[in-house]
Write a structure and sequence with these properties.
Helices cover about 25% and strands about 35% of the residues. The strands form five sheets. The protein has an eight-stranded mixed beta sheet with strand order 5-4-8-2-1-14-17-16. Strands 19-20-21-23-22 form a five-stranded mixed beta sheet, covered by helices on one side.
Length: about 375
């Protein structure tokens, strides 16, 4: 009896091994037609542009002064309210996280020395002159670190069109990272205030976490015009307009850009304009071409019509945003970091996830994809 059990167990194990081997051989030898759609797939950016018609539109017109490391200008957001009465409007000014060592993402112990060189430098954004549908409104900072901006004393009916405008003056801190200047390089990752998220209970005013991705936003539309001195390049999350030179982005979860002096190379990759700035630009462009081609083959069309990659001296391996990536210029491996960054644009930007409560979702899927 015992011998029969052993034989049965061995038989089951052999069958299991055979099945595993068969599955592995199928995966390695299968034709793509077995798992890729047989009909043409519309470019994701075309679908996003169509879906973006009802999304908020952020418009920025600003001047960058590299001698003072300041960006000054005007910003507005046009949006339609949800099905509830609004008595206030709340914005999140993520740039003001850099105003204090307590809240700066670059001041956490493992990054402080590499980012600041051991000496904290304050940065942030000051706002003024708010109007709502052309009417001047008072505002206040609703937290201790000036990250939450509340425009009060408004009475806006459900499903109403709103245009909120204000002036701003943004000061970059001297450091290496997502919101910084270092030499002739200025990196501004999500520098502009955005509407806080809102649910059936009202505006969501949770504090910004130090670790993980603290930037929470649904997709929005952006039109950003940055004027910089002659010799400076401005490139960011979107495509330049044919006329006027503003950068336009559809269905983007944020807006990031680079301003500075850097050589650049560009190429059309499957209809996507890829621009690489900084050191090792040609080799990074070659890697980006392979990465996008592979991901489009396996996971579907790249979400947007353009991609800007900046090679710069940063403490992290990479910084990723919508249509915009910063790669650590000192890395020896220039393949995996861009691959992970582009994967996050698929699974953290296009698909989206709860980047505050469940950040592991996009992180794990992006790591698997790359």
């Amino acid at each position: 009896m015992l011998s029969r059990v052993k034989k049965n167990t061995l038989t089951i194990l052999l069958i299991a091994v055979a099945l595993i081997v068969a599955i592995m051989l199928w995966i390695m030898t299968r034709d793509k037609s077995t798992y890729m759609p047989s009909v043409p797939v519309a470019r994701a950016s075309d679908a996003l542009a169509a879906l973006s018609a009802d999304m908020p539109l952020y418009t920025v017109d600003a001047v960058y002064d590299p001698s003072a490391h300041k960006l000054t200008g005007t910003q507005s957001v046009s949006f339609t309210t949800t099905g509830q009465q609004l008595t206030s409007i709340i914005l999140r000014a993520y740039a003001n996280a850099y105003s204090s060592e307590d809240t700066s993402p670059a001041a956490v112990p493992e990054l402080f020395l590499a980012s600041y060189g051991g000496v904290f430098d304050k940065g942030g954004i000051a706002v003024s002159a708010f109007t709502v549908n052309g009417e001047p409104k008072a505002f206040r900072y609703a937290d201790d670190y000036n990250i939450l901006i509340e425009v009060a004393d408004v009475a806006i009916a459900p499903l109403s069109s709103v245009e909120l405008s204000f002036n701003f003056s943004l000061t970059l801190p001297k450091l290496k990272g997502a919101f910084s200047y270092s030499g002739d390089t200025a990196i501004l990752s999500n520098p502009f205030p955005i509407l806080a998220e809102i649910d059936e209970f009202g505006w969501i005013t949770d504090s910004v976490p130090l670790y993980g991705d603290g930037y929470a936003s649904k997709p929005n539309n952006w039109r950003v015009n940055i004027t910089a001195p002659e010799g400076y390049t401005v490139a960011g999350s979107g495509s330049p307009e044919t006329e006027g030179g503003a950068i336009v982005a559809y269905a983007s979860r944020g807006f990031s850009f680079f301003a500075g002096k850097a050589g650049q190379v560009s190429a059309d990759v499957n209809g996507i304009i890829v621009t690489v700035l900084g050191s090792n630009a040609s080799s990074i462009l070659s890697e980006a071409r392979d990465i996008i081609s592979y991901y489009e083959d396996v996971y579907g069309k790249y979400p947007w019509q353009s991609l800007v990659v900046l090679s710069a001296d940063i403490p992290q391996d990479y910084i990723v945003g919508s249509c915009f990536i910063v790669i650590n210029s000192k890395l020896k491996d220039r393949t995996l970091p861009p691959a992970e960054a582009v994967a996050k644009q698929y699974f953290g930007e296009l698909a989206g996830s709860d980047n505050l409560g469940q950040p592991w979702l996009s992180e794990s899927v992006s790591a698997f994809a790359s």
